[in-house]
């Protein structure tokens, strides 16, 4: 029987009934190097979010309203988020790391009715006018004294206590109804609000259960706020370390290692920047993580060297599961580290990065590269195995639209009967065994006398011992588009002369058919990259820089 209504909070209520006293959330706080922890069990989290849902309703905040939530990972964050879901109030989740300009645009598009934030967020709202035309209710979380006064919002603690002691009647939404708006980070373009339904959340929970093998009673080091919400829904405790989730590269590894040890975490969710940072710290300290049974990495492709370094801390047989997907559709495929290591030679020769086979229920197809809108799916669209094209995905965790962005929706979505396929904006191919190989962003290809793809080209040059990373960009020379490779050198290695390095890079280019024709190189001191992953190179900025630098 098909279930047409859902709410992610049903899983929390189930856990509160069956494992009431088990740990649901623990939040680590660091003050002057001293660590402390705040904890809440499933029964209390369920009851507190019930109470908060009643209190929000009493304050005039009702089902169907949209609420910006800018609260740092904390017990309040979990209580508020589950309260919003229970009440059918639509949370708008944004990445604070996207920048002031992008944040303002997000609020203008989403038109929130409610703004819930920490004092600093509320002060920024007042100064910068975030959501001013639409926001009717402002609530403040935490803070004290002058900071709280400057927030200019009713403090969440001052909302009257609910008189009812009965469980809150969870709002069950139709599978097609909007349950949340999650804005993309904007690291590969303008941030867009992805419309999430509870059916999407449900599909993600099922994938984590069945494809990743997560079981009730596990404990997860939750370094990404959205993923941390899945913990209580899975009957798994979310252990939130003291770190800025929007800037994982600044995390203190000692704090994270302490949280893992204290709670004997079995699962970790880490992005490439954090994987690299923890791996380096673990190598220096010869640290081990014997309790960890599974590591999930997502957000951008992690380098094989950083995965190998991190894996030295893990027990034999424990995998780093590299997940492919995007805010619009996650997870799509998965590649265990042991299998990934076997593809190193192919990746170094420019075959792309293998991101594994589709998870259960997901269909991946490759279509011709085009900027045209494709309104209807046709079975003649998929390319043959081995042919590079745009990656298109279908599955229950795939979003159907962007919020208030009809043009973006038309460009990225393809109707396939009652289902919507999503164009990932990435290029790649399927091999004969059904593995997906990623070859970069569609927008990062260079069409010159032939077509060049970013990852296959860059990974070839990255094998040079002096090259830390490289970036393929397009420049105009005498009215023609030509490829140019920006190169960032490894600062820990003594470099050869520029003339010798240039010749060595030319020699590499001539070794492979997909890199022949690349004979322009520029050394860049420090690539501009996204803050969250420290892996997504801003090639658009490098292209502008290269155009100014290059002289024939």
TrEMBL record:
NCBIfam families from the UniProt entry: OlefBLtnSynShew (NF045785), PRK09274.1 (NF006754)
Domain AMP-dependent synthetase/ligase: start-end pairs: 36-403
Name of a matching Pfam family: AMP-binding
Name of the protein this chain belongs to: AMP-binding protein
Cross-referenced PANTHER family: LONG-CHAIN-FATTY-ACID--COA LIGASE, NONRIBOSOMAL PEPTIDE SYNTHASE PES1 (EUROFUNG)-RELATED
Superkingdom of the organism of origin: Bacteria
């Amino acid at each position: 029987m098909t279930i047409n209504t859902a709410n992610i909070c049903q899983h929390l209520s189930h856990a509160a009934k069956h494992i009431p006293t088990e740990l649901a959330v623990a939040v680590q706080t660091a003050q002057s190097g001293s660590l402390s922890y705040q904890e809440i069990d499933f029964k209390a989290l369920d009851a507190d979010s019930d109470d908060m849902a009643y209190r929000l309703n009493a304050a005039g905040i009702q089902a169907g309203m949209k609420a910006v939530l800018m609260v740092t990972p904390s017990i309040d964050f979990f209580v508020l988020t589950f309260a919003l879901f229970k009440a059918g109030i639509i949370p708008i989740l944004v990445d604070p790391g996207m920048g002031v300009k992008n944040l303002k645009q997000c609020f203008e598009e989403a038109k929130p009715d409610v703004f819930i934030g920490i004092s600093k967020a509320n002060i920024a709202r007042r100064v910068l006018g975030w959501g001013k035309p639409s926001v009717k209710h402002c609530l403040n979380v935490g803070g004290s004294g002058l900071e709280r006064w400057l927030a200019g919002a009713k403090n969440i603690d001052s909302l009257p206590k609910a008189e009812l002691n009965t469980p809150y009647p969870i709002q069950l939404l139709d599978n097609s109804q909007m349950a949340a708006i999650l804005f993309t980070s904007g690291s590969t373009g303008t941030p867009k609000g992805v419309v999430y339904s509870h059916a999407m959340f449900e599909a993600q929970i099922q994938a984590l259960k069945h494809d990743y093998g997560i079981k009730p009673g596990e404990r997860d080091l939750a370094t990404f706020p959205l993923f941390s919400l899945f913990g209580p829904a899975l009957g798994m405790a979310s252990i939130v370390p003291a770190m800025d989730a929007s800037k994982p590269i600044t995390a203190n590894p000692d704090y994270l290692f302490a949280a893992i040890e204290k709670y004997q975490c079995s699962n970790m969710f880490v992005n490439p920047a954090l994987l690299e940072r923890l791996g380096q710290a673990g190598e220096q300290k010869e640290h081990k993580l014997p309790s960890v049974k599974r590591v999930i990495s997502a957000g951008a492709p992690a380098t094989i060297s950083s995965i190998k370094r991190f894996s030295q801390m893990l027990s034999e047989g424990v995998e780093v599961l590299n997940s492919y997907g995007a805010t619009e559709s996650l997870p799509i495929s998965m590649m265990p580290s042991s299998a990934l290591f076997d593809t190193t030679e192919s990746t170094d020769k420019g075959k792309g990065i293998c991101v594994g086979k589709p998870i259960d229920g997901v269909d991946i197809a490759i279509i011709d590269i085009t900027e045209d809108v494709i309104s209807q799916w046709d079975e003649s669209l998929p390319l043959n195995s081995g042919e590079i094209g745009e990656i298109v995905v279908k599955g229950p965790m795939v979003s159907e639209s962007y919020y208030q962005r009809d043009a973006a929706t038309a460009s990225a979505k393809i109707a396939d009967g009652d289902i919507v396929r999503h164009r990932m904006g990435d290029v790649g191919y399927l091999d004969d065994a059904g593995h997906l190989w990623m070859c970069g962003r569609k927008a990062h290809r260079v069409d010159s006398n032939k077509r060049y793809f970013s990852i296959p080209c860059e990974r070839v040059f990255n094998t040079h011992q002096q090259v830390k990373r490289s970036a393929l960009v397009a420049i105009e020379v005498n009215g023609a588009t030509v490829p140019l490779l920006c190169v960032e050198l490894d600062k820990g290695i003594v470099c050869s002369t520029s003339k010798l390095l240039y010749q060595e890079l030319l020699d590499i280019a001539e070794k492979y058919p997909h890199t022949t024709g690349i004979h322009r190189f520029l050394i860049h001191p420090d690539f501009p990259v996204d803050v969250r992953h420290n892996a997504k190179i801003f090639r658009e900025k490098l292209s502008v820089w290269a155009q100014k630098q290059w002289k024939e």
